[in-house]
Amino acid sequence: MKRPRERREFLLEAGLLVAATASLPTEASTAQKVPAGKDAKEIHENPTEDVSPPEDLMREHGVLNRILLIYGEILQRLNTGKDFPVEVLAGAAGIIRNFIEDYHEKLEEDHLFPRFEQAGKLVDLVRVLRQQHQAGRRLTASIQARASASTLSTAAERKALATDLDLFVRMYRPHEAREDTILFPAIRSVVSAHEFDVMGDQFEDKEHALFGKAGFEGVVERVAGLERTLGIYELAQFTPKV
Ligand SMILES: [Fe+2]
Ligand SMILES: [Fe+2]
Predict the structure, then answer these.
(1) For the chain, how many structural domains are there in total?
(2) Does 95 reside within a domain?
(3) Tens of pLDDT along 219-239?
(4) What's the CA-to-centroid distance between 155 and ligand 1, angstroms?
């Protein structure tokens, strides 16, 4: 996606040239503009800028999906009487609270939902999505309250946690699937091309204000760390041996 020139100059000044140029492959001279100390590896690892709003939101759903996999694994262990590292549960719930609820869903509530409501489009869907955000926040508060070894020492608490995790996973799979397939593809129908560009910049600016220079990639790394501790990081373990 092509951005206004001002944005590009701001990125140059902010030292974000590496990431910005990574997504502008048509400019033959970008390589020589890479600041000292930055190399091709870093360009590859930090493709954070010039992401369109739907792509930005969808890759955040990727983080949500990976947390749902963590929740699902913990749920299975609770249901089969197996142990799990409680710090993984606390870490996963913390990422849901900070990254998904206070950032991703806030973007949807502040920048997306009102535009659909004002345009009178997909209003029934948006109403349910709003209700589900609130239900998710209540479940996360409950999961966070239970995410300690002492709390989970009783069978009743383990069962209550299993119920919360099950309700959370069951709601968020259809929630995000509906946003990915219905709401996000319709964003262009409720905003102008200029507003679409501005929205992308606002999302990126907020991401870095809240999550630092590492931004999205930093959050993905934290999720990967939780997966490693839980033992579900290696992708090949999920390939059927047939
Ligand atoms: Fe949502
Ligand atoms: Fe979402």
Answers:
(1) 2
(2) yes
(3) 999 999 999 999 999 999 999
(4) 32
